[in-house]
Amino acid sequence: MARYCDYCHSYLTHDTPSVRKSHLVGKNHVRLRMDYFCNKARQTHKAIFGKKKQDLQARRRARRNSKLRAAVQDAVAHSVALHCDTNRQKRHAHRTSHPVPEPIGVLEQLYRRAPGYAKVFRSDCRLDTGQSVRFDRLPQRANRRPNDHNRGFARARDRTSSPAVSSGPGSAAAPSGPATASRHTVYAPDYSDAGSTAQPAPLLPPPKSLAMWPTAPALVYVNRAPAEAIVRETTRRIERT
User: Fold this and answer.
1) Which of 126, 127, 216, 226 is deepest in the core (most CB within 10 A)?
2) Which one GO biological process term can you cite for this protein (predicted)?
């Protein structure tokens, strides 16, 4: 007689081990068996699984309302009277406040112990923002020592000053006013600043390439001789024919 399955409520085709095994691992049998045990669990534990959703929501709502009510009562018990500031107090607070905060030196804190920290984060050690540039207003390559800016201005004034036009043979040339360095002022390097004031250092010798410059042959950019010779030869042959 064919085997009967209590979960599926159906008979097996054959009562053999292979058929029983294939039926027990089948999807339909597993699903029906799972539903059977789930229903049994709901019937057994009716006190836990039989609660209504509305009752749970009402209980949660009551608990939440009680917490809010307790918080409101606590706030009312510790309430403090608030008074807004007058316009005079607001103006005084606005004047005494610092709207622009101090710069956050993240990079300065990061590179504080770096070898070249002073060359970047110290204004008096930087070549582009040093004391000499602030006094001379010259490019970075023309930096001088901070105590030599007056002497540099005197030299620049002597170089750029021009005598006044003389009105007669006995009139003396009146020097012009002090000339300030501007973007049109041609900078002349002064190598004597590198030495001491008593014994200035000698000027650097010119490079060897400039010594042979006057003896070098002139450059010829375009030589029209070959083209003219070709034109003459072609014209002569055409005239012969």
Assistant:
1) 126
2) mRNA 5'-splice site recognition
Q: Which residues of 96-117 are buried (b: 16+ CB within 10 A; e: fewer)?
A: eeeeeeeeeeeeeeeeeeeeee
Nearest Cα residue to 17 out of 30, 31, 3: 3
Cα(126)–Cα(185) distance, rounded to whole angstroms?
24
pLDDT range class, residue 170, cuts 50, 70, 90: very low
Rounded Cα distance, 157 and 46, in Å: 108
Using the 8-state DSSP alphabet, how is residue 5 labeled?
E
The closest alpha carbon to 161, from 151, 150, 153, 169, belongs to 153
Instruction: Please tell me which of 58-62, 178-182, 205-209, 214-218 the model is most confident about, judged by mean pLDDT.
Output: 58-62
**Burial group, residue 181, by CB count within 10 angstroms (0-12, 13-18, 19+):** middle
d(CA 200, CA 16): 120
**pLDDT tens-digit readout, 107-129:** 888 888 887 788 778 777 776 65
Local confidence band at 88 (pLDDT 50, 70, 90 cut-offs): very high
CA dihedral 144, 148, 153, 158 (to 10 degrees): -110
* H or E, element range at 153: helix 149-160
